Amino acid sequence: MSRSEWESLCDGCAQCCLIKLEGDDGEGIFQTDVACRLLDLESCRCTRYQERSRLVPNCVTLHPGNVSQLPWMPKTCAYRLLSEGKELFDWHPLISGDPESVHAAGASVRDAVISETEVAADELEDHIIYKVEVEEV
Ligand code: SF4
Ligand code: SF4
């Protein structure tokens, strides 16, 4: 698969751009409804995609070898589905032909999250929405 084919698999949901917190003493990983400061909340796209790794050191660059090692990736993520041998949802832009279909289906973070720029670091815990289910993926 070429780099551009790999990139085109992303459905643009931006769920992976939400801040996650690690609990103390192996309590697990907790998902918040707070988005990375570089995410455009309307388009659900990274505003500095080419520089993301430098600007946000914990921004993970996905590749075929690490997807299955990231339990916090949403179950709807196309890369996760692919690594689990599952089919894409019919709202995936590659199936629907419409980049807006991921938002229309309610699968993206649009209108559901706030930006990190609006939340103090010590208030992030108040934004936990669920504990990440860790399973073999
Ligand atoms: S969760 Fe997966 S499909 Fe959604 S934006 Fe992230 S990489 Fe793309
Ligand atoms: S740097 Fe960009 S791609 Fe990485 S988490 Fe932030 S918004 Fe998402």
UniProtKB/TrEMBL annotation:
Classification via InterPro entries: Puta_zinc/iron-chelating_dom, UCP006173
UniProt cross-references to Pfam families, sorted A to Z: CxxCxxCC
The name this protein goes by in its record: Uncharacterized protein
